# Entry
Amino acid sequence: MKKKLSKKDINVVLNKLEKLYPHAECELAYNSPFELLISTILAAQCTDVRVNKVTSELYKEYNTPEKILELSQEELENKIRSCGFYSTKSKNILATCKILIENYDGVVPDTREELMKLPGVGRKTANVVISNAYGKPAMAVDTHVFRVSNRIGLVNGKNVDETEQQLMKNIPKNLWTDTHHRIIFLGRRICKARKPICEECPINEECLYYKGKVM
DNA sequence: AACTCGGGGCA
DNA sequence: TGCCCAGAGTT
# Structure
């Protein structure tokens, strides 16, 4: 049924995305790998705008594992409540801070395997941290990347893991991180989950979803 | 694969 | 009021 784009069209899409969003970056505000880690944990099922609003206050006083562990779970919950899932996230963040101090001398590890051992850190969050904070190639697949890349036809993945594998195979390694951010930009502004604005989409000529819609 | 955690923004 | 948001963990 649904097919993937040709290699040629994939390159066209990547080039258009690069011209469209040449300086795409992580929109979570952070000043250290630790801050990015905590912000990304908070970002689960929550907009980055709200995360930044919470962390801009939180990090003034609490920007290290040691500082955050000065807070009780209830105190931390009250500070991050507006990010949603505050109970789970608070518990995970406190547990993660404790592990960072006990096992990593307070330094956020730079490998996906070590990061994913931390409570509240899954594959997506780990990929965001190693790619943005440590400059390592990684393809983080969130809801935007999953939806858009499959909708366009960059990949044809049944789930997040399949999608990540296919994206890494179809996209040059040096473009993984930038492409991740560019797809998010496109996904939020145009290729939205509900009512994608296909008429204004710069890559609708290549998009399999758009072609399917007009046929 | 399905279910749970969740407040806030927006139509 | 209903739907959705830079996911992860458990069953």
